[in-house]
Design goal:
Blueprint lengths: L15 H19 L11 E6 L5 H12 L3 E6 L11 H11 L2 E5 L3 H11 L3 E5 L5 H15 L6 E5 L5 H13 L2 E5 L8 H14 L3 E4 L10 E4 L11 H8 L6 H6 L6 E4 L11 H6 L1 H23 L3
Parallel strand pairs: 1-2, 1-3, 3-4, 5-6, 5-8, 6-7, 8-9
Helix pairs in contact: 1-5, 1-11, 2-11, 3-4, 5-6, 5-11, 6-7
Length: 312
């Protein structure tokens, strides 16, 4: 499958077959790395890493993934370049596109990533925006496949803030891959209706099901319970309000018991605020799959760079 030159901004832009290809490539690259085999597909390639928001996993994953494949990553923090400040995003994109072979962007406004992709002329990879977090979803799906051997037909329940970038992206990815997804959240925090309608169209093709509910009983039958922080970056002033709203949706032993399944796993994209969205005990019980997720950011991000930019 040829994905050369493609940007990776949202899973809306990728078919089920293309997502499967990236997951299979990531599994292959992960196996190779475990066996001490590194590639050279990014040899001679220079990668710009633009970060408006801080990061542990995304920065580490892009840096190591690039170096493992022979490329050179260059970190560009919010104080290092004039992105959208003294220079327009369009002009910055045209400059970077002439110097770099690929661009990672982690920031606030999704339109900034879209402008970088439109004007740079090189692949742009979304490391997180306020709307979407597609590289995280690939890591999540690789982790789920490693545990269950499949994606299609599993039930995934996302508990928490149902309209943040993680809920949006899980909804898109699950609908494309035939996962039955439930957004368990107060109605005021459900995803936009436009996105729900679009994802129902994806699900009609894949055979997946989408459910939105504010009833905690929605976790019944879950194979995977997924949660995230109750306040995204930039929403720190809403902490007290969110704690009050979302306390009933905390992932805890009682919620796990309601699944009725002994094999249910809990996932978290990190960083976690233990005691809010997830109890300390449940987090530690599922630390292995949660940190599998964290590691898999590296393998799936490497796969994205190799597939869209690499020379094999």
């Amino acid at each position: 499958m040829n994905l050369k030159g493609r940007s990776f901004l949202t899973l809306k832009d990728y078919s089920k077959e293309e997502i499967e290809y990236l997951l299979n490539l990531a599994a292959k690259l992960k196996k190779n790395k475990k066996n001490g085999i590194l590639g050279r597909s990014l040899k001679g390639k220079n990668i710009a890493l633009i970060f408006e928001k801080p990061s542990t996993r995304t920065r580490s994953a892009f840096t190591i993934g690039c170096i493992d494949e022979g490329g050179h990553p260059e970190y560009l923090g919010k104080d290092d370049i004039q992105l959208g400040d003294k220079e327009s995003i369009e002009d910055t994109a045209r400059v970077l596109g002439r110097m770099f072979d690929g661009i990672e962007f982690r920031g606030f406004v999704h339109e900034s990533a879209e402008k970088l992709a439109e004007y740079s002329g090189v692949p742009v990879w979304n490391g997180l925006t306020d709307n979407y977090h597609p590289t995280q979803i690939l890591a999540d799906f690789l982790t789920i496949k490693e545990h269950f051997g499949k994606l299609e037909g599993l039930k995934l329940v996302y508990a928490g803030d149902g309209r943040n970038n993680m809920a949006n992206s899980l909804l898109i990815g699950s609908a494309k891959m035939g996962i039955n997804i439930t957004i368990l959240s107060p109605k005021t925090l459900w995803p936009d209706q436009e996105l729900i309608t679009l994802c129902n169209e994806y699900a009609d093709v894949s055979g997946g099901q989408i459910k939105l509910t504010d009833n905690i009983n929605g976790v019944a039958g879950a194979d995977v319970i997924y949660t995230d922080v109750w306040c995204s970056m930039g929403e720190e002033d809403l902490v007290a309000e969110r704690i009050k709203m979302l306390a009933p949706y905390q992932v805890n032993d009682d919620m796990l018991a309601m699944t009725g399944k002994a094999h249910t796993i809990v996932l978290h994209c990190l960083p976690a605020v233990k005691g809010n969205e997830i109890t300390y005990d449940v987090f530690e019980k599922f630390a292995e799959p949660i940190f599998d997720q964290a590691e898999n950011r590296m393998h799936t991000i490497k796969a994205i760079m190799v597939a869209t930019l690499g020379d094999e």
